[in-house]
Write a structure and sequence with these properties.
Elements lengths: L7 E9 L3 E4 L6 E6 L5 E6 L6 E4 L3 E9 L4 H5 L10 E3 H4 L18 H10 L10 H11 L5 H8 L3 H12 L3 H14 L6 H8 L4 H12 L3 H5 L9
Antiparallel strand pairs: 1-6, 2-5, 3-4, 3-6, 4-7
Helix pairs in contact: 4-5
Organism: Kribbella pittospori
Protein name: AraC family transcriptional regulator
InterPro entries: AraC_XylS_family_regulators (IPR050204), Homeodomain-like_sf (IPR009057), HTH_AraC (IPR018060)
Length: 235
């Protein structure tokens, strides 16, 4: 659905039956449609996740995820992203018009659900976007590279304080926490043989800084994560 491209960064449709589910920290808000083993269907909002979580697997015959671009959830949902941090709630709790949406989704043709959910979200867009909308998008792009909050604010022509205030509301996290998560997500998406080289490339002061940040966000050291020694929660 091309109209969703400016708003949704990634769409995944899969059957979830892994023995373990790894959920890294994520600055994005995600719309999730799932059907469980009992055939029950629901549409959820997963807000920004500040730390990683690890869960024992469960069978989900359908699991569709629409990952909203960081900073763009508020116009789509009508709710500030900082109200959704580390929360998973029914979409209908955020959008009253979403009540009954899951009943319109066909489990035999789950790919069609993208159009149904996407249309529902786009219909909620205000006629005029917030005046800070483009600024937030630029800040997200800047902070996704190894750049400090001060450098980002300076490049955008605003104060650090102003950037922190509007960024937290739109994205759900402080600019500094967003940048930390972006760096760690970049690390776990690649095959790293040398953590010292990775530290330099990702903008860390040194390897010990990388390990400390990784442990704080992923809840384990890089070595433990690489070998699957993680704290699994039964669900």
């Amino acid at each position: 659905m091309r109209a969703l491209e400016p708003w949704v960064e990634e769409i995944t449709l899969q059957r979830c039956d892994a023995s373990m589910i790894v959920l890294p920290p994520d600055p994005a808000t995600t719309v999730v449609w799932r059907i469980n083993a009992a055939g029950e269907s629901d549409v959820l909002i997963a807000g920004p996740r500040t730390r990683a979580s690890y869960h024992s697997g469960k069978e989900l015959p359908v699991c569709l995820r629409l990952r909203i671009r960081p900073g763009r959830a508020m116009p789509l949902l009508g709710t500030a992203a900082d109200e959704l941090v580390d929360r998973i709630v029914p979409l209908s709790d955020v959008c009253a018009t979403a009540a009954g949406l899951s009943e319109r989704l066909d489990r035999d043709h789950p790919e069609q659900a993208v159009a149904v959910i996407g249309s529902h979200l786009l219909e909620r867009l205000p006629r005029r976007l917030p005046e800070r909308f483009e600024l937030i998008g630029e800040a997200v792009e800047e902070l996704s590279s190894p750049r400090s909050v001060g450098e980002t604010a300076s490049r955008l022509g605003v104060s650090d304080r102003y950037l922190r205030r509007i960024f937290r509301q739109a994205v759900g996290l402080s600019p500094k926490h967003f940048a930390r998560i972006a760096r760690v997500r970049g690390l776990i998406s690649q095959d790293r043989r040398s953590w010292s080289t990775a530290a330099t490339g990702a903008g860390y002061a040194d390897q010990s800084h990388l390990i400390a940040d990784f442990r704080a966000l992923m809840r384990v050291t890089p070595a433990a994560f690489a070998t699957g020694r993680v704290p699994v929660t039964n669900c």
